[in-house]
Amino acid sequence: MKLFFRRYGDAGAQPLIILHGLYGLSDNWVTFGRRIADEGFDVVIPDQRNHGNSPHSDTFNYIALTADLDELIDDLSFDQPALLGHSMGGKVAMRYAMERPERVKKLLVADISPRSYGSRPQHVAIIEAMQSVDFETVKSRSEVESVLDRRINDLRIRQFIMKNLHWRDKDQLEWKMNLRGIRDNLHQMFDTVETDLEFLKPTLFIRGGNSDYILPSDYPLIRKNFPFAEIITIEGASHWVHAEAPEQFYLLASGFLTGRPGWYLEE
């Protein structure tokens, strides 16, 4: 699948591909992408399938998402890009790095581990809240947010979801995401990345101290597949660690990706 993407920096610089998480889109990473491009990276931030401006499909699983990434790397003629992925994007990046290690220079994973996450009813609730918006009667962004407010109590999550809203034409709002395709395959997004393959290149996992997506009990599984992984916690941050602690996240990420001496002390 040909993905929509945003690109920053100079062609020919070290390539870096950033993969957003579930319900996200490339726009979430523009500030980070522009900033790190100035450190000598050719930054590409795609919308993954069923998200943002990329095509919709009834097929939505990690095999398809990984194949999309492989096609993107081919189309861009990238030689060993670094991969940065958050949540769902982190699992895509992990799978790809293990399956195609010769094509990846470094791997950075934000707040996700290879394990299975079981049922996550809060994600179903988010989709149901979005599906409850009747765009035949709701005609403004504020009206949409009012509908979401009745079902999603967390302001941060509502604002995150609202980024998926756009004007289909001058009179009609709609969600960019393929809600049905995501809902029908949601269980697959929480599958384990189960393999004996290893990625033996530099790897960094950044976790939020208030998140349960990477727990100390996950460390042995992480290091089984990523023997050289560093795992660093940003205390006080949740699953959206890059948004809640942007400066700490940037210093760690940019230090790791550039190989700046002592980057792991910049937390």
CATH top level assignment of the largest domain: Alpha Beta
Order of helices and strands: EEHEHEHEHHHEEHEHEHH
Strand arrangement across the biggest beta sheet: 1-3-2-4-5-8-9
| Percentage of residues in DSSP E strands | 15-25%
Mean of residue pLDDT?
Answer: 94
CATH superfamily (homologous) name of the largest domain: Alpha/Beta hydrolase fold, catalytic domain
Structural class by SSE content: alpha/beta
Q: Could you describe the largest sheet, including whether it forms a barrel?
A: 7 strands, mixed
Low-confidence runs of at least 5 consecutive residues: none
**Which topology of the largest domain does CATH recognise?**
Rossmann fold
Folded structure, characterized:
It is a single chain. The protein is α/β, with parallel strands linked by helices. It folds into two domains: 5-116 and 194-265, Rossmann fold (3-Layer(aba) Sandwich); 121-184, no CATH class. Helix content is 35%, strand content 17%. It is built from ten helices and nine strands. It has helices at 30-37, 62-76, 88-99, 121-131, 141-149, 155-162, 179-184, 219-225, 241-244, 246-258, and strands at residues 5-8, 14-19, 41-46, 82-86, 107-110, 165-169, 172-175, 203-208, 229-234. The strands form two sheets. It has a seven-stranded mixed β-sheet with strand order 1-3-2-4-5-8-9, with helices on both faces. A two-stranded antiparallel ribbon has the order 6-7. Helix 1 (30-37) links the parallel strand 2 and strand 3 (41-46). Helix 2 packs across helix 3. The longest helix has 15 residues, at 62-76. The chain is globular, with a radius of gyration of 18 Å. The mean pLDDT is 94.
